[in-house]
Write a structure and sequence with these properties.
Shape: elongated
Oligomer: single chain
Helix content: 40-55%
Number of helices: 15
Distance between the termini: 15 Å
Order of helices and strands: EEHHHHHHHHHEEEEEEHHHHEEHH
Number of strands: 10
Low-confidence stretches: 269-274
Strand content: 5-15%
Largest sheet: 4 strands, mixed
Radius of gyration: 24 Å
């Protein structure tokens, strides 16, 4: 896949340190993202419409003020490495973080393009502080004001964020969590049983086609197939897998330096696009982008053709047609059948029809 993925080195990590467990804070983060970007989540249209219509205007304004923590991606604050039974317990864990870690996690996504590099905290490093303020200013006055307040008084901002999440819980999330936690707990138990009986590779494959186990001699890595590159290591620490009912099509992996690895995966995520590997989607897009192959697809979508028929129709040589057909076949876009001494080719229309949703799922993953 050309190095495009996030890897978690778990070499030597015993299976009992791999945990599948629901997290109310992580699910609240997924729900807030769905409210902020409903177009990403058409299956949640009824829920997002109902909740948005019923939101108190003051709460809606406060959510808008802080939505950079969950709109374009997800702050690590909302993906706890130690999931708890209740939202209050997970918020208590956030309260126990020191200010440098809390501010770094709150601002790293939207105010630092170097997530995986471990930049110094803007609370203690002047250059990092200037860069954070500059990046926030480039995103508009609302975010700039929020970041300035956070850097000036981290404790007050921390309390403000906690109150905001508690008010969301009271307004809509507590009822939502009561309905989805049973499903999430059942999924986590199923994955835990798969892990125990059939191994981590089976449990990962069941969680998402975008998760895989790679073993290279003594080295063992979990790969998360995403259109980004990053690497982290468990270093003996537990790795948490958090199921989400609100998350599809997103698949998040915490891989910031110094943080425990966390993966949030969507349950029942096999409905649209088939969760094709990013490399496969790229291969298919490249295959159909060529002008001649696009013309060949016009015929192949309408019926079966032999190589010689296509060569005659488009005025090119049979070897040229064969090379183009080979590219389409490697991409999984053709079906073939033999009829006597002829091999007939046809476009797999069902695969091509999914290409748009496969591409969208890949870039949103």
């Amino acid at each position: 896949m050309g190095g495009v993925s996030v890897t978690i080195d778990i070499t030597g990590l015993p299976p009992e340190r791999i945990h599948f467990s629901p997290s109310p804070l992580a699910e609240l983060g997924a729900a807030l993202h769905a409210l902020a970007e409903p177009a990403h989540h058409p299956r949640l249209h009824a829920w997002t419409t109902t909740v948005s219509a019923g939101l108190d205007p003051c709460l809606a304004d406060r959510l808008h003020e802080a939505d950079f923590m969950w709109r374009s991606t997800r702050s690590d604050l909302l993906l706890p490495a130690e999931p708890r039974e209740t939202l209050a317990e997970e918020l208590d864990d956030l309260d126990r973080m020191d200010d440098e870690d809390f501010v770094g996690a709150a601002l790293e996504i939207s105010c630092s393009p170097r997530y995986g590099e471990g930049v110094p905290s803007p609370l203690v490093d002047a250059a990092s502080r200037r860069r954070t303020l500059d990046l926030a200013a480039a995103r508009g006055p609302r975010q700039a004001a929020f970041v300035e307040r956070t850097l000036a008084d981290p404790a007050a901002t921390r309390a403000w964020i906690r109150r905001l999440l508690e008010d969301c819980d009271e307004a809509f999330f507590a009822d939502t969590w009561r309905r989805v936690r049973v499903q999430l707990a059942a999924d986590a138990r199923h994955k835990t049983e798969l892990l125990r009986r059939r191994g981590l590779a089976e449990a990962l494959a069941d969680a998402s086609p975008a998760l895989a186990l790679e073993e290279d001699g003594p080295a063992t890595r979990i790969t998360v197939d995403k259109l980004t590159h990053g690497a982290t290591a468990a270093e003996g620490r537990p790795v948490a897998f958090l199921p989400t009912a609100f998350g599809w099509p997103h698949l998040f992996a915490v891989h910031a330096p110094g943080r425990r690895p966390v993966v949030q995966y969507p349950v029942s995520a096999r409905e649209v696009g088939g969760a094709e590997p990013v490399g496969t989607v790229r291969l298919r897009l490249e295959a159909v982008a060529h002008p001649m192959r696009m013309r060949l697809c016009r015929s192949l979508a309408r019926g079966t053709y032999s190589t010689s028929e296509l060569a005659d129709a488009y005025g090119i040589t049979a070897p040229e047609v064969s090379r183009h057909l080979a590219v389409l076949k490697r991409a999984g876009l053709l079906t073939t059948q033999r009829r006597g001494r002829y091999v007939l080719h046809q476009l797999d229309v069902s695969v091509v029809a999914r290409l748009g949703s496969d591409f969208l799922e890949s870039v949103l993953r």
